[in-house]
């Protein structure tokens, strides 16, 4: 994240705009909407900008910029067509710790203006960090269509009753539960239907109801986060991620996906790497039960699919035995995601009519697998967690009859911008890995379908590096 999104309180605060043209007018209009007192400095100031400044309680200064004008200002905007002057304003402001924006020159800025969706008091801001203002505006246009103006009215109603709700419900979880019911139930629907009076009356009734809050009931959501690309999450997964009180997440859950969880949820890392378990599986199972019995909504977020080498079955078995309610949301498993994003179909009429998923890392740290069953001329084999055991895997497949020339692919961090694909043969892959910088997490795909990679490789982030 190149810029931290912040919201300035400019009510009756002194702000400075250097420049008197159209660009200065656009920036001053935003400052005026935020109720700032605007000072404009420029040799020439257009009439509409002058009127705007006067209505804001500010003033216009016709003449040269001087650093003394920065005194007592909350922020400054340089909106001139003089590059040298813009640079000087930036340097002057930075020297005294004053936030500065130089229009169309991100390198001189300490803050930038986002594209704004105004549903006051709800305000959504979209920024590209100055890299593509047009893209930010396009995203704003999309949000405009899905955020009705009535959301602002709903927020104002919530603000009006905030202290009353706080007095009615002393526990934060009770307040959260009340507001979730109000903002997703009949009150919200009445507001969206253009019936604000009825909406407020319904809120008042709900606030007086002794049974307004259901009995606190803990639950566990076992959710597959997929192989890494946030766009591969299901709608149900995202909904549960947004309502959970606490999140237990694995090492394979990507940061962008974790960021989509509710911001105020407690987060507990329970990831596992080879010979390095942050929290043993038995303790994870017990922790899920404990948190749910405390009335928490617990999100157990697992990379890939929780039921494919994710030990999800063990976790819900413990929940079931303890009488804890749970839901399971499948995710796109690593095999499906990595194969699709590397252009390697797991089955193909001309190459493979079956596919087998195998773990390359067993409890006893060996690869004691039914090797003879894996040797089939029209079968794709996918090994999870097999990078450390790769030499043993390649050796045993050849010993049990698979051709040394059989193609094999290693997919590192599949479906993400860091995806790398290494293609070789059973005979040569162990040496190729030694020469490469391939590292976990990786997936191994063995079979003739690997030959299609060069023809079908549509997702190729390496080409952009």
Short synopsis of the structure:
This protein has 465 residues and is α/β, with parallel strands linked by helices.
List the helices and strands and how they pair.
Layout: E1 14-18, H1 22-33, E2 37-42, H2 47-55, E3 59-62, E4 75-78, H3 83-95, E5 100-102, E6 115-119, E7 122-126, H4 133-146, H5 150-160, H6 162-168, H7 172-184, H8 186-192, H9 196-208, E8 219-224, H10 235-243, E9 246-249, H11 255-258, E10 266-269, E11 272-273, E12 276-277, H12 281-293, E13 297-302, H13 312-321, E14 325-329, H14 334-341, E15 354-359, H15 371-374, E16 379-384, H16 390-399, E17 407-412, E18 420-425, H17 429-435, E19 442-446, H18 453-456
Parallel strand pairs: 1-2, 1-4, 2-3, 4-5, 8-13, 8-14, 9-10, 9-13, 15-16
Antiparallel strand pairs: 6-7, 11-12, 16-19, 17-18, 17-19
Notes on the protein architecture:
By secondary structure, this protein is of the alpha/beta class. The protein has helices spanning 22-33, 47-55, 83-95, 133-146, 150-160, 162-168, 172-184, 186-192, 196-208, 235-243, 255-258, 281-293, 312-321, 334-341, 371-374, 390-399, 429-435, 453-456; strands spanning 14-18, 37-42, 59-62, 75-78, 100-102, 115-119, 122-126, 219-224, 246-249, 266-269, 272-273, 276-277, 297-302, 325-329, 354-359, 379-384, 407-412, 420-425, 442-446. Helix 1 (22-33) packs parallel to helix 2 (47-55), helix 8 packs antiparallel against helix 9 (196-208) and helix 12 (281-293) crosses helix 13. It is globular, with a radius of gyration of 29 Å. Helix content is 36%, strand content 19%. It contains 18 helices and 19 strands. The protein has 4 domains: 14-113, Rossmann fold (3-Layer(aba) Sandwich); 150-208; 219-332, Tetrapyrrole methylase, N-terminal domain (Cobalt-precorrin-4 Transmethylase, domain 1, 3-Layer(aba) Sandwich), CATH 3.40.1010; 335-464, 2-Layer Sandwich (Methyltransferase, Cobalt-precorrin-4 Transmethylase, Domain 2), CATH 3.30.950.10.
